[in-house]
Design brief:
337 residues, mainly alpha, MetI-like fold, 13 helices, MetI-like_sf, cell membrane, transport, dipeptide transmembrane transporter activity, transmembrane
Length: 337
């Protein structure tokens, strides 16, 4: 198993190298002059050139790239010009917030979409099937920022049952002791139920926003995979053997339909990590998405490069995890393949 993991990580190195090169070149194509921005609107041309030289932007692009690679080899993602702090520290501090939001949204989507897809397949053509199609179409059609603003208006402004969309905790609560960086989990580990409930209340609406967006692909893939499994010969044989309907659906059909659902789950998770950028802005969520978008606006190269590289590494690890889960769900799938 360890040898397989090592081989898969080595196989991912060319992809990560490609991400580093493309990200570096794309950030250099961003509109605007970082030296002019950070020198200030009243800066003279000489002052702007001094700032450019201090940032190393007066060197050729290949020289800048070699310097960037040297920094990466030492685990240095550079310095954010906006905050003045090392990018790696900002990413490590903010990543748990993005992961907590993404995991909560994905958990909600799985809890709703998988049973919905199974019911739609078992009762194909019924009102449940049609309702699933409507929910899936609506979920994928609504942009995440629109859904977020709609939920804030409904639950915070009109019904007043949700807290203000102002980050991970309200002003009356203090962050729990740091274990994982996930506030709800850390508060529960510390036995602080009140803080856990406060963090959960802040998390509910942004997670619901992401979850609604992720419902569509999961529900549709579950329905399609279940329809294929229910029409298979081994399911007809199980029915002819007199097995109960629940056993046929959950043990025979659903287990064989899980592989495509797992594949979609991995794709949706990696997609949500990028899609939560707008959700974090709407709910003032202090994750790496909002950090990257703020850096992108002012052409602050280092945070943008660090964000994209972090996303690439997470994507590689996620695909590796999905491959391992394949073997657990269906032992016929050989990890070596």
């Amino acid at each position: 198993m360890l040898a397989m993991i090592g081989r898969r990580l080595l196989a991912a190195l060319p992809s990560i190298a490609g991400v580093i090169v493309v990200t570096f070149l794309l950030t250099r194509l961003l509109p605007g002059d970082p030296a002019a921005y950070f020198a200030g609107p009243a800066a003279t041309p000489q002052a702007i050139e001094e700032v450019r030289a201090r940032l190393g932007l007066d060197r050729s692009v290949p020289a800048q790239f070699l310097s960037y690679l040297g920094d990466l080899s030492r685990g240095d993602f550079g310095l954010s010009l906006t905050t003045g702090l090392p990018v790696i520290r900002e990413l490590v501090t903010r990543l748990p917030a993005s992961l907590e939001l993404t995991l909560a949204g994905l958990l909600f989507a799985v809890a709703v979409a998988v049973p919905m897809g199974i019911l739609a397949a078992v009762r194909s053509g019924s009102w449940i099937d049609h309702a699933t199609r409507i929910v899936a179409t609506a979920g994928v059609s609504l942009p995440t920022f629109f859904t977020g603003l709609l939920l804030v208006h409904l639950f915070y402004s009109v019904l007043q049952i949700a807290p203000a969309p102002m980050g991970r905790l309200d002003i009356f609560s203090s962050p729990p002791a740091h274990w994982t960086g996930l506030y709800v989990l850390d508060a529960l580990l510390a036995g602080d139920v009140q803080t856990a409930l406060a963090a959960l209340a802040q998390l509910a609406l942004p997670a619901l926003t992401l979850g609604i967006f992720a419902l569509a692909p999961l529900a549709r893939m579950t329905r399609a995979a279940m329809l294929a499994a229910l029409g298979s010969d081994f399911v007809r044989a199980a029915r002819a053997s007199g097995l109960s309907r629940g056993r046929v659906v959950w043990v025979y059909a659903f287990r064989n339909a899980m592989l495509p659902v797992l594949t979609t789950l991995g794709m949706v998770f990696s997609f949500l990590l990028g899609a939560n950028v707008l959700v974090e802005k709407v709910f003032a969520w202090p994750g790496i998405g909002s950090y990257a978008i703020e850096a992108l606006i002012v052409s602050d190269y280092a945070p943008v490069q660090g964000f994209v590289l972090t996303m690439a590494l997470l994507y590689v690890l996620l695909n590796l995890l999905i491959d391992i889960l394949y073997g657990i769900v269906d032992p016929r799938v050989k990890l070596e393949s």
